[in-house]
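Limitations
The structure tokens in this dataset are predictions for the assembled complex, not deposited experimental models. Users should treat interface geometry with appropriate caution, especially where small molecules or nucleic acid strands are included. An illustrative entry is reproduced here so readers can see what is and is not provided.
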Amino acid sequence: MDFQAVFTKPHLLFLLDGLLVTLEVAFLAIVFSFVFGTILGILRYTKIPVLSHLAILYIETIRNIPFLLVIFFGYFGLKQLDIDLPITTSVIVSMTIFTSSLIAEIVRSGLNSVDRGQTEAARAQGLSYIQTLWHVIMPQGFKRTIPPMVSQFVSLIKDTSLAVAISLPELTHNAQIIYNKNFNATIPLLLTIAVMYFIVNYSLSIVSRKLEKKLSY
Amino acid sequence: MDFSFLDVYKDSFIHGFVTTIEVSVVALILSLILGVIIAIFRISRVKPLEWFGTAYVEFFRNTPLVIQIFFFYFGLPSLGIDLSKFMVASLGLAIYTSSFIAEAVRAGIQSVNKGQMEAARSSGLNYIQTMWHVILPQAFKIIVPPLGNQFINLVKNSSILALIAGGDIMYAADEAAVDYDVIPIYIFVAGLYLLLTIPLSLAVNFIERRWAKQGSR
Amino acid sequence: MRFNKWVVSLLLIMMVMVITACTSNSENSTDGSSIENIKKRGKLVAGVKFDTYLFGYKDPADQQIKGFEVDLMKAFAKKLLGDENKVEFKEVTSKTRIKLLDAGDIDLIAATMTVSEERKKQVDFSNIYFLAGQSLLVKNDSTIQSIKDLKGRKVSTSKGSTSAKNMKKMAPEAILEEYENYADSLTALKSGKVEAVTTDDSILMGMQQQNPDLKLVGGQFTKEPYGIAVKKGNSELQKELNAFIKEIWDNGQYATLYKKWFKKEPAKELPTDSVLQTN
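Predicted assembly:
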């Protein structure tokens, strides 16, 4: 085992380079999937005909297929349809398509957890359906979505590593390039990047726990 | 839509479909066993066991599955441990999934009133008997829905086998994608995965709804 | 209500980011690969390998793309645009390269790509600039000496390469494992998951130079002439490349680059397309 091969300056810089790509892709994908997922979840919750059915179809299809398939589709499939995206954008799009379906379910069950009696009470007071949704249901529902939402984002960060299959120059890919020249460094390298992912994800979980506590008061 | 790739790659897909099912079933059983053991460690009063359980859960669920699989497949041989692809895949998937299952089981167990443990223990049952006959059956209802979701994830995650030339559905898709248009292939593959995941997903929904009704009665 | 203000401002921030993300990415692809367009753009976009030592690889030490094909493309950029630095390298693999070329992500492919009749239907090739042949890379203590010894043994290669197809034809009883790239194929050999890697000897030579515990065996059992691929119908760029290959052969630059990378003299003559027929 060769730990020294990992901790040379150029190699560490190369890994950090990969980590930056990982974080950049993950951050943008988190933001986009939060937006689209929330919209989808609300659509499904509202039971507006056609729209909510489309939302159901989308959610149930996408969340039941492997993410790797979505990545391949977002890269090779879109190219075949003449939609030409640079690799980083393609991965962000794939992650957004996939994660929004899961976020949508979290949002819906958060909204569902709010007592239906409250809707009736608010409507009886003269609020419109949209006003009720916006002022009464969503603020309460969203609070409960924070923990599952954050663990979904942790999954997303981990899943960026699957883009290694289409050679996105992220952390796992860069580690691969190094251990191919220094085979004895395979285990040390895999451990090193595992720790890097762990630090990012674990900090995120801690922030989420703090946030949860704060909001529960 | 041109599905002529099936003429050449039909056998690959059949073989892949079977492999995906085999790996998923073996990993599912293993992950359930591991998950329950780790959950019991986590709530154990023996400190080292508790620490081990916590470290296990936090480490494996906060690092990417790809890295764990690469570690088992490419890394372990240099330590003299040479596992077959099937072993790597089922063990890797089982360990990863068990960290999530352990959390679900722990939450389930802890939701059962503490007094019951004390009561059972004072009536002469030992710790394991109490767990098995008193606590786990009650915790079961709370555990099953999240478990169902973990099994769906497991089936989806098994696609990672393609990255170690594991001969699953995804690998067959990759093989076919070299010579044929990718979109029909991806649609076909999505169909195969949905065939496996949708019934699971429906079963989870069904159980959840049925128990919810019983609970409110 | 405080909560909703927070949501609205978050949404606004996101929209701004969406817009910036979209605009910053829109200039990444080529807008047609005619020579006029390349000149107007001021840079050539070449698809090369990033994981194939000696031909195209990213050096982790300084992040630079290096290799024989990379140097060839720099020389071509110099001929075309007057500056060897006016070339952008994009990573391709055997699996991605034709798709990227068709999509217009790259102007040309210089990535250990074998000229074959089948591929000529998809892309147009320049004249041949390198003659490789499929071979085997094994551990120094391996009992495998030629392709005949592969019966029932595991051999790895990269997905989408001609090597996989040749192997299925020439050694149908070998157990073929196709990995995502050559890097994984090599890792599989080193970790003992397979007993041999098969692909063009040119690529295997690079792996061997970096791993002295491995050796090449079995000679060249196919002929793999490499050509530079351009999009089907782009005969203008194809002709320019042919003129370029002849030029560097005649003025000795080819020999210099060949010696730099392969540590030996090139053959007396550049192979021609006729090797295809003898195969």
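Some entries come with short summary sentences. For this one: Confidence is low (pLDDT under 50) at residues 23-29 of chain C.
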